[in-house]
Structures are given as C-alpha cells and as structure tokens.
Amino acid sequence: MHGVEAWLGTIPPIAVYLLLLAVIGIESMGIPLPGEVALVSASLLAATGAVSPWGVGIAAAAGAIIGDSIGYWIGRRGGQAVFDRLGLRFPKHLGPEKVDRARRTFHRHGVWAVFFGRFVALLRILAGPIAGSLRMPYWKFLLANAGGGVFWAGGTTAVIYFLGRAAERWLKDFSWALLGVVVLGGVVTALVVRHRARSIAATEPDHEPAEPLAPARRD
Q1: pTM of the predicted model, to two decimals?
Q2: pLDDT per position as a tens digit, 87-134
Q3: Which of 81, 103, 75, 132 minimizes the C-alpha distance to 210?
Q4: Is there a contact between 192 and 40 (Cβ–Cβ < 8 Å)?
Q5: Do residues 118 and 151 touch, judged by C-beta distance below 8 A?
Q6: CA triplet 166, 167, 168: central angle to 5 degrees?
C-alpha cells in the first residue's frame, strides 16, 4: 500500500460518516456549509478504499433527510422571524433577496423545488425552512425530501466513486498524484456547483412580488 493510501486508511470510517452526516444535516437546516463538497470529498475517499461508498451514501442521505425535516419544522414554527435572523447572521448567503428568490421558486414549482432543490446550493440550504414556513403538507415534503436526498446522495456518491476508481487504476503508481486528483476534484466541483446555482437562480425573475411568509407560530 502506498504512503498516502496508508495515511488515508488510518482515518476511522465512522468518523467520516458522522462528519459527513453532520455537515449535510446542518446545511439542510438553513446554515451555509459546504455539504456537496463534503459529499464529493468523502466519495473520492471511498474510491481509495479508506471508507465504504455505501456508508458515504447512507450518511449523506440521512443527513439530508433529517436536516431538511428539522429545517421544515423550524420554518413552520418560526415563520419570517427565522429568515430575518438568518439574513442578519449570513447576509451574503441568505440575505432578503436570496430568500425571496428561493420562495418564488417554491411558488412556481411547488414540491418539485424540494426534490430538485437538493442539487442547487441556495435551495439545498433553504428548502426545509421555506417549505415549513409556507405550510407545505409535511407528507408531501417528506416524500420529495427523501426522494431528492437519496437520489442526490446515492447518485453523487456512485458517479464520483467510479470516476475515482478509474483514475486510481491509471495513477496506481503515483499515490501523491491521486491525492492531488482528490483535492482538485473537490475544488472544481465546488466551482461548478456555485456556477450552476447562480445560473438556475438567475432564471427566477426579480420583479415578481414575493408573497409574505407565515408569521411565527405562537403556542
């Protein structure tokens, strides 16, 4: 076993799974974190044999489903106040214009915004809270959330894993080169995701009036 592969093999797989679940779960609650970059990195790590691709896919899907569900109930209970606080805390990522754009997407596409939103950075963060604040029936949200989460996590893991295995066969005599591919792949993926999210968000017209979110629920 090459030196880099031996070093990667010292990382406990359970630590990778738990960290991946936590990053994706927290991102799905409405906190900007690099969930997709974490998934790609873990998938590439699986390609080296350090962790199981099944473990990566399951951890990512679980984080997405659980985090989105928690975000849903936060948005349903907190209403507009949740987005006001998020906008103050993360003005660059979750400012009022970003929230309005995400909300218009939900009004236009409904439950499909939850399913396909898993592939768009802005909606991946806000899908749960916005769906809850708009009082989307939870069973509809859960079906779209689970379907999108499994499709996103499983599909991304499988594609990156098999690409990584193919690259490893070509680079088996250059372990540091393999590590460079892992790092470069994560950086390139982050740039592609950012560009894709901006392109999709740009299709939503900015002049449409935004419907108000539900106020905070008082029990």
Answers
A1: 0.68
A2: 667 666 666 777 777 777 777 877 788 888 788 777 788 888 888 878
A3: 103
A4: no
A5: yes
A6: 90
Tokens, residue 5: 């592969």
Distance CA 83, CA 109 (A): 20
Question: What single string gives the DSSP state of each residue in 142-204?
Answer: HHHHHHHHHHHHHHHHHHHHHHHHHHHHHSTT-HHHHHHHHHHHHHHHHHHHHHHHHHHHHTS
Which among 61, 35, 49 is positioned nearest to 189, based on CA atoms?
35
Residue 97 is encoded by which pair of tokens? 């214009």
DSSP codes, 34-76: -HHHHHHHHHHHHHTTSS-HHHHHHHHHHHHHHHHHHHHHHHH
> How far apart are the C-alpha atoms of 27 and 16, rounded to whole Å?
17
- What are the distances in angstroms from CA 109 to CA 103, 116, 119, 144? 10, 10, 15, 12
Q: Give the pLDDT confidence of 125-180 residue by residue, as tens digits.
A: 888 888 887 888 889 889 989 998 998 999 889 888 887 776 666 555 545 555 56
